[in-house]
Amino acid sequence: MSDDTYTSNERRPGYDGTGPGAITPDGCAVEMWTRLPVGDGPDVIEASVPAGAGILELGCGVGRMTHPLTDKGFTVTAVDESPDMLARVRPEVRKVRSPIEKLDLGERFDVVLLASFLVHAGDEKVRQGLLETCRRHVADDGCVLIQREGSQAHKDVPREVMVGPDMLARVVSSTPIGDGVNSVFVEYEFPDGNWTQTFLSRPLTPEQFERALAEAGLRIETTLSGDGTWVRARPIV
Questions:
Q1: Is residue 141 part of a domain?
Q2: How do residues 45-82 score in pLDDT, each as one tens digit?
Q3: Kindly report the CA angle at 218 between 208 and 97, in degrees rounded to 5?
C-alpha cells in the first residue's frame, strides 16, 4: 500500500530538518536515526504483550524498534510514509509505505504500536487519525501500546543530554505558537556530523489524552513505565 501525499523531499507544514542525507516529510534525518540508540522500548513492549504476538508498528522509521522486536520473536509489520526510512528496514520484514492516519490494511493485529511520541502530533485531526488507525487495526482482544511525552518535555528549555557514547541531543526551544501547540527545535551533534529537526508538538493533560483515546474507541488499561510515558490501551467493544 502506498500514498504519495508527501514526497521524500516535501515537508509537512511546521516540520523541517537539516543535515547530511535524506530528510523525511516530518523533518527526521534518516542517517541520524540510524545512529540513535533504541533505549528500553523493546524491553517494555516484550514485557507487556504475549510472546510471539503479531505487531503493527506505526511509524517504524529505520527499524530501531522493528529489529529488536523481530529478534525477540515477534512478527512485525512496519509502516512508515518515508521510502528512505523503509529502505533501512531489514528486507525480511513486511513493510508498508503510507501516512499512518490514512492506513487501512483490512487486517487486525494482536498489538498496535504507536511510539516516538507521535500521539502528540500538532494537528488534532492528524492525531485523531493516528488513534483511529490504531483502533481500526487492533483485534478486539488485542492492545495498543502508546509512547507519550514525559512531563518535562517542554519545560526547562534549553537543555541537553548525552545519548549513547557520542551523541549530544540539545532541545534548543519549545515555543508556543497558539492553539496549545509548541514548535520544538532540536539539535543533534556527533563527532562527524550535525543534524537539526523542527516539529510541532501538542502537550496533552491526562484528561485530554484519555478523551482523545475514547473518541477513537480506546481506553487506557495500565501504565507500563515508571515515568508514565508508555501506556497500554484496549479497544472499547
A1: yes
A2: 999 999 999 999 999 999 999 999 999 999 999 999 99
A3: 100
